[in-house]
Amino acid sequence: MKYRRESFGTIDGQTIWQYWLENSQGYQLAVTEYGATITHLIMPDKAGKMANVVIGYDHLGDFVKQQAYFGATVGRVAGRIAHGTFELNGHKYQAPINNGLNTNHGGPHSFESQIWHSAVVEKNDAISIVFTLTSPDGENGFPGNLAVTTTYTLNEANEWLVDYQAITDKTTLFNPTCHVYLNLTGDFDQLVGKHTLQIDSDRFGAIQPDGLPTGELVPVTGSVFDLRQPQPLQAAFDSSAEQNTLVNGFDHPFLLNQTQNTADAILRDPESGRSITINTQGNAIVVYTANGFGDEPNLTDKAIQPHQAVAIEAQMMPDAIHHAGFGNIVLQPGEQYHRQTRYQLN
Ligand code: BGC
After folding, report:
1. Considering its fold, how many domains does the chain have in total?
2. Catalytic residue at 139?
3. Closest atom of ligand 1 relative to the 251 alpha carbon
4. Residues 329, 77: contact at Cβ < 8 Å?
5. Domain span at residue 20?
6. Using only C-alpha atoms, what is the Rg of the chain?
7. 218 within some domain
8. What residue range is the signal peptide (predicted)?
9. Residues 187-243: tens digit of each pLDDT
10. Residue 111 Cα, ligand 1 centroid: separation in angstroms?
C-alpha cells in the first residue's frame, strides 16, 4: 500500500488536500478535504485495463461548481426531510428548505461543501484517510454540536470502505451517506443502461414526483423495482414513461432485507467485466440514476447528461423521522455512532 498527498487547490487561501491511495494491484482511491469527497476510483476491467469509475473532476473548482453532490459525504441527514421540520424531545426544529418544499441532504452548504480536517492511518494491508468535522449546535437547524468522522479505506483485498462515526451533545438526527456516482465502463461518454443492478430488497419506498417518500413501502414483485435478480438499468429508463412511479429512472430507496451472507447490492457492467458488491450496516440503499443531470461541468468533451452514472447511496431510509418502519436516525448524547459500508471491487 502507498499514498501521496497533493494540493487540490485553495479556498480563501487555504490549501485543500487530495490523497491518492494505491494498493499493490494498482487500484487507486482519491479523496479530498473538500466535502470529504471521493474524486477518483481506479480499478481494472476484465482485461486488466485501469480506468476511473466514479464521477469526479481533476480540479477543485469544478467540484465547487456542481450541485449534484459528486462523491461527497452527505449529512447531517441524507435525503429529504418533509418540510424540513422534525420534533425531538418535545422541541420542534426547522431545517432550511432547499429542495421544493423540503430539506434535502442536510440543507444548503452542508457537509458536501465544507472543508474537513484530514489525517492518514497506515497499516500493512490498508490505508485510511480520516476526515473530521465539527458541525456546530444549530447548524442548518439541527440541534447539538456534532463531531463527525468520515473514514475512507483502501485495502489489499481490493475493498474500499466508508466508515461514519459521530457523537453529539444534544439529541439530534444523523443519517449520512456517500454520494459517489458510478459508471463502471470507465468511459463517461457511455450511459449506464447496460449495467445490471441487484439489490436484496423485497420492498421499495414510494416517492412523490418531488422525490419525497410517501411513507409507503411497496412490494417489488412484478415491477422494474424487482432487483432481487440482476436487471439492466435500461429497463427502468425504458419504462419511465408508462410507470409514473419512476422519475426518468430510479430515485428511490430500497428497504434492505438484510439477509445474512447475501450482498446488499451488486452493480455490474457486463461489457467491461467490472463489478462492485456492496454490504452496508444501514437499512436502505437509495438508487439515483442521475436523472436530473445537465447543469454540472462536463466530464468529457460532451455535455453532461442524465443516466451518465448511478449513485448507490447506503444509508437509513430517507425521511425516517416521519415514518414508522423506516428505522431510527436519532442520535443521543453519550452514544457512539458507527456505520460501515464495504465495497468489494472486482
Ligand atoms: C437525490 C436526488 C437528487 C440528487 C442530487 C439524490 O440523492 O435522491 O433527488 O437530485 O441526490 O442532489
Report:
1. 1
2. no
3. 8
4. yes
5. 2-189+293-345
6. 19
7. no
8. none
9. 999 999 999 999 999 999 999 999 999 999 999 999 999 999 999 999 999 987 777
10. 15
